[in-house]
Structures are given as structure tokens and as C-alpha cells.
Amino acid sequence: MNSGRFLEARQRALSLLEKSPGLIGALWIYVSSGRVDRDDPVFQRLQNLGAHNGVPPEQASQIQFMLGKCWDDCGEIDKAFTAFCAANRLKSAPYDQSGTRALAEALMSAEEGLPEALRNIAFGPRMVFVLGMPRSGTSLMAQMLGAHHGITDLGECTALAPALALERRGQNPHLAFLTEATRQRLASARTNYLNAIGATDHPGQVLVDKMLENWWFAPMIPRLFPDALILHMRRPRLATAWSCFRNDFSVGHGYATDFTQILAQYDLHLGLANQGRRRAAPGQWHEISLDDLTARPREVLEPLLAALGLVWDEACLAPEAGGDMPTLSKWQIRQGISPGLAQGWMRYLPLIEKTWGVSE
User: Fold this and answer.
1) Residue 46 in contact with residue 70, Cβ under 8 Å?
2) Quick one: how far is CA 271 from the chain centroid?
3) pTM for the full predicted model
4) What angle do CA 74, 328, 155 make, to 5 degrees?
5) Which residue, 195, 216, 215, 219, is CA-closest to 207?
6) In this structure, which CATH number among 1.25.40, 1.10.287, 1.25.10, 1.10.10 belongs to the domain 6-90?
7) Which value, to the nearest 10 degrees, does the dihedral of the CA atoms of residues 49, 22, 84, 233 take?
8) CATH superfamily of 105-340
9) Are 209 and 221 within 8 A, CB to CB?
10) What is the pLDDT of residues 153-181, one digit of tens each?
């Protein structure tokens, strides 16, 4: 499925379901590998499972997420909305909203107190950081850039967080790094990061890191990589929140089970991103609208490529031909680029406004 062989994935899932009709993983692969119509036996099986009271909460939540997707495929928006709400009520995902906000504010305050001149002076290799909230278009942007012959998409690298960490007893390691930041520590952090991503394995290539949660370090990226291009992917606030709410994240997104918590997380992310934009050099930071990217892809991408010293490559318009995509966006991206790619959430807007009392 990650490699785009959806028909084969479905066939494998069906063969598993013949042996174990209630196998949650096989059901999920089947539902996620294409559209489901009303008469599909798998859809009927999910409805039966969803009506069963003896299913453990974690599995019941997964079933409701799948039912929501099936009802959405059938155009039954009210039923899909109900299923997604039920899925999140059933899901156990601890999240400390006040602690998360306090950490974000502390990081912004600590970085704000650093001298403006505290920056690395080393250059190369050329990096592109694609960051943003989940479901904001980071996967699409990275896949489109990675299709260029001069660019290597490294996927979601986990190297920046440890590079910007300093162990101090009783302190958050990232806050400790900012508190004791020096030019030498910045240089070491850059070196450690580049070693961790294997930068020397891709000579002459522009390297893309699309770890979306790098927004936590947005103010530090321009200091660490003054030569990097930073692309902040944006969608409307409610579009982002709804897309997070309706998707079943595995780990690390405890806020995503509560719509108001997602909105709060969105605002935190925006605060750190805005501070990163203020810290960036002219032409280094780019705000990219997912709607613009899908409606006018060449118009959006060509200036970015020029800033990287690259010419236009038609391959960028065929991200579905790229490599593996172990993200929730694998199905959408494989359908190719279209202006409607990010517009499906609009069908839910009246229900969102009614349920949570918010408006776009």
C-alpha cells in the first residue's frame, strides 16, 4: 500500500479476511486502499462489528474510524461525521494541553532572548525543511520536490530534535539547549544533524526533511541552517483540524481526539512558526497554501526551485510516481494533483460549526 500498489494490497487483505473475518489490520488496509461502496461486503462486516457491544474500546475506535471513511466514500456525510466523533470518544490518547502550551511559550521566550547574531556560518549541503501541522500538505510538497532529479526527499527525519537537545537534570532538553546556546553548540548541532541524516550519502543533491513536527524548532532552524529553504505548509484552520480529527493517528498526536484541542495545537504551532519566519533571512521562509499548491503547482514550485538553483522539472507534477509513502496521505497523493484534493472537508463545515460553535 505504501508503494501505491492498492489493488494488490486489497487482494492481500481479502485473503487474510477469509481466514480471520475480524482482523482489524486487514480491514484497515482494505478500507484505506481505495473507495468503498455501500454494497461492499467488507463495509457490511464493519457495520456488524460496529454494532457489537463487546468490542474493546481501542478496536471499537478503529472500527468507527473505518466506518466514517466508508460513509464518506458513499457521500453519507451525517453518518460519517457521527462515526468519526464516536471513534475519537472511544480512543484513549493522553494529552497535557496546559503543559504543551507552557513548553511552547517557554521555548519561544528562550529563543527570543538569544542574540540575533547567534547563527551558524557554515554552508552546505543545501537543505529544505517542510513543516506544518499534520494534514497540511507536507507529504505532497515533499513528494513533488523529491520527484525533481536534483532533489532527494529523506522523508520524516527524526534527527533535528536530538540535535537540539541538551541533557540537564530537571529541565526539558530543548529548553536547556536554548538556555545555554552558543555558536559552538549550534555548529555541533548542525554537524550532528547532518551526520544523522546521512547527508554525505547524497553528494550534489538538495535534501528535503519533511518531519512536520519540526515546527517546534522553527525559530532555531534559520539559526542552525542559514542556507536552508523553509517551507511552512498551510491549510485553513478548520480544514486542518477536521482532517486531524477524522484520521486515526497511531502515536504522538494525543490532541487529535478532541476538536478544540486540535485548534489549540494549531495555534501553538502557528506561534512558533511565526517566530521562525521573523528569524529567517529574506527569501528563506515561505508560507505555502495547500490550496494554491494543488490549483497552481508549477506557479508555486518554480520559484522555490529557482531559489535552490534548480530549473523546472516536469516530474514534479507527477508525485504519484514517487517512492514509498508511509503516511496517512498515501492514497490522496497517488491520485495525482487536482484543485479538489484538499476541499473535501467543506462538506463537513456546517456540522463542524454546529457541533463546536466555531466558524472559518
Assistant:
1) yes
2) 17
3) 0.91
4) 155
5) 195
6) 1.25.40
7) -170
8) P-loop containing nucleotide triphosphate hydrolases (3.40.50.300)
9) no
10) 999 999 999 999 999 999 999 999 999 99
